[in-house]
Amino acid sequence: MLTRTRSDVVRRLLDNARFEVLPTARVEEAVVTHLAPGRTVTVTASPSQGLEATLALTERLAALGYDVVPHLAARMIAGRSELAEISDRLLGSGVTTVFVPGGDADPVGPYAGALDLLDDLASIGNPFAEVGITGYPESHPTIHDDVTVQTMWDKRRHATQIVSNLTFDPRVLGSWVRRVRARGVTTPILVGLPGPVDRTKLLTMATKIGVGESTKFLAKNRGVFGRIAVPGGYDPMRLLTRAAGVLGDDRMHVRGLHLFTFNQVAETEAWRREQLARWER
Q: Does Oxidoreductase count among this protein's keywords (predicted)?
C-alpha cells in the first residue's frame, strides 16, 4: 500500500507534465485533438527536417493557445545573427520558454554545443523567461561523465530548468538528482519520462525521423526499444513511484515531468489522465 505522501508526489508530477513531440506532418492534429489549449508542448529539432519545421509548428501551436517550448539545437543554428532572428520570431509568437540542447547534427556555424549558444543568447540580452538545458542520469555514449557534469555546471548560470534525459532505472534517477544537488546546482529539474508506447508505432516513428537520426537516437539511448516496447519491460508508473521519495523531497526542486511521447500524443495523455484518476481515489 503506497503512502499518501507518495500519492501526493505522483499527482503533482502528473499535473505538471509537458509533452515532447517531433515536428511531423500529422502531429499538430494529434496535439489539437487530444491536448487542451494551455498545456505545455515541446517541439524537437530534427536535422532531417530542418529548424524551420520546429519554428513553424511552434508558431501554429502557440497561435492555438498552447504553451510551446521549441528546441533550439545549437549545432543547427548558423550564428548570432540567426539566433537573434529566431528569438525575435519566437517572441512575436508569444513564446517565453526555450530548450537548448547541443543537437546531433554537424555544426552549421560556430556553436559546437549548447553552452556556446547560451553565451551568445545572453550577449544579445536573452529575452526568454525560461531556458532549459539537458541533464544526463545515464552515461552519454560519446561524452565522458566528467564532461557532462562540467558542462551542466557551466550552463547553470544561463538555465532556469534542467530536463533529464531518458532513464529506466529509478535508482539511477534518484541518485542523479541527489548528485546534482550535492554539487550545488539548484536549478529546478523536469524529469524526462517516456510514456506508454506501442511497439509498432515506435518503430514507425523511428523511420520517420530519418535513418541517420534513428541510428543516433538508438546509440544515445541504448535499450530504448527493448525497454519501452517489450511487454512488461517498462512501466512509467513503476519508475515514478519507486523514485517518489527523492522526487518529492522539496530540497531536490523537482518541478514536474517532461513526457517523451514519440508523437503518441493520444496514448500519452490518456495514460496521464488514467493515472491521475487512479491516484485521486
A: yes
